[in-house]
Structures are given as structure tokens and as C-alpha cells.
Amino acid sequence: MLSEPTSNDSGSKSMSDCIFCKIIKGEIPCQAVYEDDLIFAFDDINPQAPVHTLIIPKQHYVSLKDIPEEKMGFISHLMSTARDIAEKKGISESGFRIVLNTGRDSGQDVFHIHFHLLGGRRMSWPPG
Ligand code: 5GP
Ligand code: ZN
Fold first, then answer.
1. Residue 22 CB-density burial (10 A; 0-12 exposed, 13-18 middle, 19+ buried)
2. From ligand 1's centre to the CA of 46, what distance in Å?
3. What residues have their beta carbon closer than 5 A to ion ligand 2?
4. From the CB of 102, is ligand 1 less than 6 Å away?
5. The CATH number of 19-119 is which of 3.30.428.10, 2.60.120.10, 3.40.50.150, 2.40.50.100?
């Protein structure tokens, strides 16, 4: 079951000046890819691969660490949407990578949880 968005006070990073909340509200322009009641997807402004789409919940959560256990249901919806977007963008067969940076050591820069969907080129491992 998917959880409906509710008010949230997770974390120290304020949602009032969150760029991704502003993108969801249409206050900052973006190349939208998908939208429903719970999630939003748009192309990354600084793509690291031919396909680089960000998939986010509309509810502001700072990171994976900040999602209460009972609200985790939307993650499977988000993953299934990522799979659909990969199909639509033509990278399903060639392969793709989904990245969830969490916290300082990961390089997380925007403190509204977001999954990166990357594809369209061969990627290396381990990541940098
Ligand atoms: P992080 O490093 O936090 O995992 O990734 C943040 C991502 O957000 C980066 O890939 C960055 O290019 C992207 N980004 C930051 N600001 C904007 C913006 O205003 N619009 C879009 N479309 N992407 C953004
Ligand atoms: Zn936000």
C-alpha cells in the first residue's frame, strides 16, 4: 500500500528553501518526465550520462535515513516508475544504474531524497 503524503519535519535541512520542493511546485523550471500524486521525475540539469533523470517523492524527506518505516511503501512505487522511465527512454535493454546518495560521504548535495536513473553509456565500477 502506498502512503499518502503527510506533514513532515524530518531533518535539519529546511524544506522552505529546498530546490526540489520548488521544482515540484513549478517555481523552478525543469524538464518533467513523469508525475503522479506521490512522485515526480525530471531530467538532471547537469547530466552525467545520455539519460540522467531524477525521481523524487513529492513529500520532502532529507534522505533515506529520514523516512519513517511506515512511510517506506512509496520506495517500491518509485523503483517501479524508474523501471518504466528506463523503458520509455530506451535504456532498459542496454542497462541502467539507479543511485541514491545518502549523507556527506556519498556526495549528497540536495537534501530532498532523490534517486538518479542513469544510462545510455557504459559505466565503470567501483563508483568514484
Ligand atoms: P546529489 O549529489 O545530491 O545526489 O545530486 C543532486 C543532483 O541534482 C545533481 O545531479 C544536480 O545536477 C541536480 N540538480 C541540482 N539542482 C538542480 C536543478 O535546479 N534542476 C535540476 N533539473 N537538477 C538539479
Ligand atoms: Zn524538498
1. middle
2. 7
3. 15, 18, 20-21, 60, 112
4. no
5. 3.30.428.10
Report how far residue 128's alpha carbon sits from residue 115's, in angstroms, rounded to the nearest whole number: 17
pLDDT at residue 68, rounded to an integer: 96
Give the mean model confidence (pLDDT) for residues 14-36: 95
User: Would the CB of 108 count as within 6 Å of ligand 1?
Assistant: yes
Does the Cβ of 103 fall within 6 Å of ligand 1? no
Domain boundaries, the chain: 19-119
Ligand 1 atom with the shortest distance to the CA of 107: 2
- Residues 59 and 4: their CA atoms lie apart, in Å, by 9
Cα-to-centroid distance, 106 and ligand 1 (Å): 14
Q: Are 41 and 34 in contact, with CB atoms under 8 Å apart? A: yes
Q: Is 114 a catalytic residue?
A: yes
> Where does the pLDDT of residue 113 fall: very low under 50, low under 70, confident under 90, or very high at 90 and above?
very high
Reduced to 3 states, what is the DSSP secondary structure of residue 54? Answer: strand
